[in-house]
Write a sequence for this structure.
């Protein structure tokens, strides 16, 4: 009801703006004033529609959650999406427990956002995990995220090249071209994840006084997690590294497992067993299409291999972006991007996602017995 009221107001304000612009010649100062006020009302109403005021979900764990942002520069890689010869810089955000004293070590969770996403895309989940004794690091994949700010204050927007590649990608119709895209995107993403992981572990091992919470990282308990394209990168890291204990994928195909394209235009997947426990979470956006969309063939295969190491969960009544905090901060945009209105409230869905992820991590990393 609220959205319909705001939309009705926007329509009225738009007509008022047009009327003022058309009629301003009869009384120029008053006409311009009317047009300005109409435009201002239209902007304010639009903002209220897109971003209603909401309270963040309260974390349920025992620990107070602290937050910090840092910047890591990979001097071994020149930025792919820039022509100025600069090295690739990755803003990273941390959520971690204050005054943690449980053996003075915390499992580490590293998160990769989806295409056009941001490092804060699942902050509700990050805060919940931190309140339960986890250190969470989320990466802004520069030029593949909607927007970010580098250490020197420079604003970096989404690469138009990357946006075009994603929007034009058609795996079912042009699998060979898609494979080229997948390999390019996954190379960038997995290199980012590997660089951040190596940096964090190096800082943790040095036990410097300035590292504070990084000194608490338990290098034997690491999970990589991601949404959409970020989930695909996380799954790839699960195969690449020996120090990964678990992977959580929020609706993502196994893009790093694709080894080629057959003569009949089918993707050829790595058929070996996935080396670490994995939790795959799906919405209605892909659940009914796992056997239809070529890039999800491995996901469909794992549905038949349900075990303590391979878990698959489907949240019905929601779309792809409802798996992120966008569903909380902008229900209207979530409905637009998903093409349908979620049947369940954002708070209910996000709480459930928190619960299943925490349960999985406690089982696989902290080795807790859960019901």
């Amino acid at each position: 009801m609220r959205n319909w009221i705001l939309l009705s107001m926007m329509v009225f304000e738009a007509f008022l703006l047009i009327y003022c612009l058309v009629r301003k010649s009869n009384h120029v100062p008053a006409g311009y004033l009317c047009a300005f006020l109409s435009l201002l009302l239209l902007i304010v109403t639009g903002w209220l529609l897109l971003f209603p005021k909401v309270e963040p979900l309260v974390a349920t764990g025992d620990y107070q959650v602290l937050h910090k942002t840092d910047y890591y520069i990979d001097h071994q890689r020149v930025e792919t999406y820039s022509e100025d010869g600069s090295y690739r810089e990755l803003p990273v955000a941390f959520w971690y427990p204050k005054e943690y004293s449980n053996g003075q070590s915390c499992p580490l969770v590293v998160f990769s956002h989806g295409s056009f996403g941001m490092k804060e895309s699942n902050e509700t989940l990050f805060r919940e995990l931190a309140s339960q004794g986890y250190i969470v690091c989320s990466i802004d994949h520069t030029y593949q995220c909607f927007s970010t700010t580098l250490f020197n204050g420079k604003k970096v927007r989404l690469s138009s090249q990357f946006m075009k590649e994603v929007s034009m990608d058609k795996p079912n119709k042009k699998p060979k071209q898609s494979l080229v895209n997948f390999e390019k995107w996954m190379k960038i993403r997995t290199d980012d994840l590997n660089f951040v992981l190596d940096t964090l572990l190096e800082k943790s091992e040095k036990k410097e006084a300035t590292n504070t919470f990084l000194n608490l990282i338990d290098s034997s308990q690491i999970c990589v997690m991601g949404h959409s394209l970020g989930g695909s990168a996380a799954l790839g890291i699960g195969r690449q590294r020996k120090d990964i204990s678990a992977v959580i994928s929020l609706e993502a195909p196994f893009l790093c497992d694709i080894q080629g394209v057959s003569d009949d235009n089918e993707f050829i997947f790595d058929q070996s067993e996935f080396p670490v426990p994995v939790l795959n979470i799906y919405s209605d956006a892909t659940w009914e299409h796992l056997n239809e969309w070529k890039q999800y063939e491995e996901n469909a295969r794992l549905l038949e291999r349900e075990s303590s190491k391979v878990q698959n969960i489907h949240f019905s009544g929601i779309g792809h972006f409802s798996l992120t905090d966008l569903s909380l901060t902008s229900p209207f945009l979530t409905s637009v991007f998903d093409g349908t209105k979620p049947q369940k409230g954002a708070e209910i869905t996000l709480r459930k996602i928190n619960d299943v992820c925490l349960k999985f991590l406690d089982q696989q990393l902290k080795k807790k017995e859960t019901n």
